[in-house]
Amino acid sequence: MTDAGARWVRRPARVAALLAALLVAVACTTTQGPAGRPAPTPTSTTAPELPATTAEPRRPVRIAFAGDIHFEGVLADRLRDPRTALATATRALAGADLAVANLETSVGTGGRPDPTKRFTFSAGPEALTALAAAGIDVATMANNHALDFGRERLPSTFRAIGAAAGTQRPLTVIGIGRDAEAAFRPSLTDVDGTVVATISASLADQDPTADPTGSWAATDDRAGIADALDPTRLLAGVRRADRDADVAVAYLHWGVQGERCPSPDQRSLARRLVRAGADVVVGTHAHRLQGDGRLGQGYVAYGLGNFAWYSPGPTGVLTLTVRPPDERPGRARVTRARWWPAAIGADGLAARSTGEAAERFAAEREALRACAGLRR
Known about the structure:
Blueprint: E1 8-10, H1 15-24, E2 28-32, E3 38-42, E4 61-69, H2 90-94, E5 98-103, E6 106-107, E7 122-123, H3 126-133, E8 138-140, H4 154-165, E9 172-174, E10 176-177, H5 180-184, E11 187-191, E12 194-202, E13 224-225, H6 232-244, E14 247-253, H7 264-276, E15 280-284, E16 292-295, E17 298-301, E18 306-308, E19 313-323, E20 333-344, E21 350-352, H8 355-372
Parallel strand pairs: 1-11, 4-5, 4-18, 5-8, 6-7, 8-9, 12-14, 14-15, 15-17
Antiparallel strand pairs: 2-3, 4-19, 10-13, 11-12, 16-17, 19-20, 20-21
């Protein structure tokens, strides 16, 4: 599938789980999983079917979220070796069952910078390789820089997305597509039997007098990004994800740049998304960290800030431990939220904060949670 589309990806099991499986599954043969990874398959003669009452509950799923990533300025040279481009944060991202981030740049070749924009971002297909190598599984391009080089670049963008999805370490790109259906289509990730659906959309810079990205929306007959100025399609997608998957995640590009507290529009939409069935709502665009915490039955992180960017500042990786529902449909629940506190340095990369810097980060999270109207 060369568009942004529903794509099954199975994260590799942890080493301990693999060793345990090898010890007990003596009579297993090996087949390929959805992402081409080995998966044990019992033979027909040595795997008696157990009663349903002996099945163990599914384990919780750990999902890592990072903010805005581009490869401008000091970061541009890092794509000469995309395998190590984001090396400082690889451990924090790859350690989760699923990692999601925002790729805030046009990707591909051709096209021209939009002359009406003050800032235009561009990266070659190797940017997708860099994200995958860092442990990111799903990248959203529903943002106000995805079409910085015009629709003329989109054919090469879709080719790059298709190639990234078919590699040994696949990356799924959502939030952009050849039409609205493709742009809003979620990724579907199977983590040891728990299906996580991730849908993305942009609500950023919709004023055409200030920024042209309001006209970048994909339609029924035009390529573009998933635009949620009218959230009807987004909310419908979340309802389907709640019905068809075990965990529903919405990743949005929204809010007001430079603001530390979410806007009334963000807070209103977050409530609607949680009521529609979103278990997790996260976002970017403000270029500042905003509050995270519980909202009703869901968990909301209004602003993840920058992550790989040419401007130094605080950042981090938010890892949520999510307990899947006992049956579908049903609500998943975030049982733990943990930050990898970090700061972007002069090299544009996130480096872990320790000591007093980590303590300040934790105190700031508490203050931002309060101004966001969220609870622990």
